[in-house]
Amino acid sequence: MPPGGPRVQKNSSASASDYENRPGGSSVDLCDWFKIRIANLWKEGDDRVSEELFCLAQGPLKCVICYEGYIINGFRFHTRKRQRKRKTQNSGVVVKGDVESGEADFYGVLDEVILLEYNALKDRRSPKVVLFKCKWFDIYNKVNGVKVDKFGVTSVNVSRRLPINEPFALGCQVGQVFYVPTHNTPQWRVVVKTTPRNHFDFPADEDDHYGNVILQDIVQEEVINILQDIQEVNNEDIPLVRDDIEPDLVEARFVAQCRELIDDVDVDGGEGDTAEQEQEESEFSDSGSSIGPFDVDLQESDFEDEAENDESN
Fold this sequence. Notes:
This protein is of the alpha+beta class and 313 residues long. The chain contains 6 helices and 11 strands. A hairpin with a 6-residue loop joins strand 10 (174-181) and strand 11. Residues 117-191 form the DUF4216 domain. This is DUF4216 domain-containing protein.
């Protein structure tokens, strides 16, 4: 469950029917009860239980796949271990907080990508879930953990960890950020948010409105059948030599010179196009998400739990 996930709320007016299908005693494991409960509903043909939910309730396979890099949501992520050998920074992660409850965004760095695979029904694809194991910064401390200046710029203290043991987040919920070091406070990093590649955030409502208006203007009200006006013409009957004027005689040596000149132009043009193409490929090659002179390698010491932080928490 990602940090800042659903919270259990007390309800003094809860009825007995709310606990009809809950585990009978404290010794019953929730995962085992959930597995049996979903299996029984599946056998009964309950419409609330889909094939994917049934497979997920049975639990993942014992073997998992781990990655040091992963592309999801339009972002290219690298773990901190992989990033240390590179000049680019792709390990910063962010999980959006709940706006209604006032939860702030959660910032951290990626440690590991884990792919869970589940058993599938016959002739079905196996459901897969991508988990990001992260180290989260302490955003609950508004003084020494995170701060927002008057311009709305967010900074985080990378030496303070979130005092909650919830390292995992769903890959589909994770966005990417960069951490830029400051000049006078080495433990603080300025958060720079980014957008996915080839992603353009256009207002959906305005696009639909104006798009419909344009379509209504250009659509023809009457359909014209132009197939009746088409006549087939045999190109073999068209003469390629004019017979109404006298032919011009050209010496053979001039024809040879023209052919040599045309061949030279074609060769030079081809080489020029190839050079330009190679230059464009080098300029637009995939080199990660670089932030120029602000590249920073977050060291392991930045995430060590200090005794002073533990005492203050």
